[in-house]
Amino acid sequence: MSTNRTPPLRVAVLASGRGSNLQAIIDAIEAGQLQARIVAVISNKKDAIALERARKHGLKDLFVDPKPFAGKPDSREAYDRALLEIIQQHDVELVLLAGYMKIVTAVLVNAYANRMMNIHPSLLPSFPGLDVQKKAIDWGCKLAGCTVHFVTEGVDEGPIIIQAAVPILDSDTSDTLAARILVQEHKIYPRAVQLFAEGRLRVDGRRVFLDSAQPGGEAIISAV
Ligand code: GAR
């Protein structure tokens, strides 16, 4: 019997820590909301909880130790070459950075141009980098949020796919705000991946357009 089903999108996830975004993607796949298959979860941290989550769900988990690469003039590129080899061995179609706290170099960025996504806990281009929830509070912003974007060489600079906004409350600490943002991260990251899997994301310069069967399209920016 033949079916028209296309095979699930082959995804690799790079993560350094807790892995709650990885978990959201696993859950969306297991719930049938995301037509993707995670073929490898890769970490630069041996004890990353993300690797435990992968094992628990029967996914391939790989720790790639940065230490042997350290000290060499092109250590970051050499590390990324090692990652790229693994990623290519697994026929990966989309690479997801999910709390991957290492800057990716041109080696990976060029090989996976417009095929590598990152999630960041701010409304980019405001507050790239680290401690961004605290920065948004300290700046006096009334809205914060999260962004899924394609990865380019500039940190947190690539074309924006989806954003979600949350209010900043007077009582917020960076922890309470981070928790509110995280709820939205877990919604928009699987959504962005599903749009990619459906072949509906079109990149034109800095802008990402959503091809839609619906006249008028579907709102790609969600304010929550
Ligand atoms: C998430 O909030 C993610 O947006 C952020 O790290 C956290 C990882 O959580 N990423 C960055 O700041 C990247 N610039 P997780 O490990 O539970 O998914």
Summarize the structure.
This protein has 224 residues and is α/β, with parallel strands linked by helices. The chain has one domain (9-222): Rossmann fold.
What do these coordinates show?
The chain has helices spanning 20-30, 49-56, 75-89, 106-111, 132-139, 174-197, and strands at residues 9-14, 36-43, 61-63, 94-97, 116-120, 143-150, 160-167, 201-204, 207-210, 222-223. The N and C termini lie far apart (44 Å). The protein is 32% helix and 23% strand. By secondary structure, the protein is α/β, with parallel strands linked by helices. It is globular and about 50 Å long. The structure holds glycinamide ribonucleotide. Glycinamide ribonucleotide (GAR) binds at residues 15, 17-21, 98-99, 119-121, 156, 182, 185.
CATH superfamily: Formyl transferase, N-terminal domain
CATH topology: Rossmann fold
Give the strand content: 15-25%
CATH architecture: 3-Layer(aba) Sandwich
Provide the spatial order of strands within the biggest beta sheet: 3-2-1-4-5-6-7-10
Number of domains: 1
State the total count of DSSP E strands: 10
Labels describing this entry:
alpha/beta, binds glycinamide ribonucleotide, about 220 residues, 6 helices, Rossmann fold
List the helices and strands and how they pair.
Blueprint: E1 9-14, H1 20-30, E2 36-43, H2 49-56, E3 61-63, H3 75-89, E4 94-97, H4 106-111, E5 116-120, H5 132-139, E6 143-150, E7 160-167, H6 174-197, E8 201-204, E9 207-210, E10 222-223
Parallel strand pairs: 1-2, 1-4, 2-3, 4-5, 7-10
Antiparallel strand pairs: 5-6, 6-7, 8-9
Helix pairs in contact: 1-6, 5-6
Bound molecules: glycinamide ribonucleotide (GAR).
